[in-house]
Amino acid sequence: MNSGRAASREEIRREIRALLGEAEALMLATLGEDGRPDAGHAPYVQDAEGRLHVFVSRLAEHGRNLAARPQCSVLITASPGGNPFARRRLSYRCLAHPIPRTDPQAEKVLGRFRERFGKIVEVLAALEDFSLYRLDVESGRYVRGFGDAWLLDDVRAQGLRPNRPDAPR
Description:
Elements: H1 9-22, E1 25-31, E2 37-46, E3 52-57, H2 61-68, E4 71-77, E5 89-99, H3 104-117, H4 120-125, E6 130-145, E7 148-152, E8 161-162
Antiparallel strand pairs: 1-2, 1-4, 2-3, 3-6, 4-5, 5-6, 6-7, 7-8
């Protein structure tokens, strides 16, 4: 999407929304028991406010890690194609919040998973080891291509600003 011209902040927000809508899964980095990072893969949905949610098994390392240590990072990339060094990508530092199955919000989020991923969600929802998490974005970065990166304050990219080498994340 980087055409060589400067994009407006609203154009960048549209690109971010499009990327979030196109991608079905994210890479999820969590902290292991020993403090070292573990990376996993998880399908995701967004709620009406645009917040990210994952539905993960506690049998998987990332599921156990989120239950014990809520700090995580996610990476969402554009579809393969073009130069992999310049691929559009969105990364967020997040804090994971479990959503108990008894919470009315759980059924709404599971409904979004059903809409997006179909009948498999019913099978997974029947398993006791699967848990829902809301990933609250603390900060983020959107990379449009070489030399074109933006820092974000939240999932809606309201605090969007150019990334500079000396900018705090």
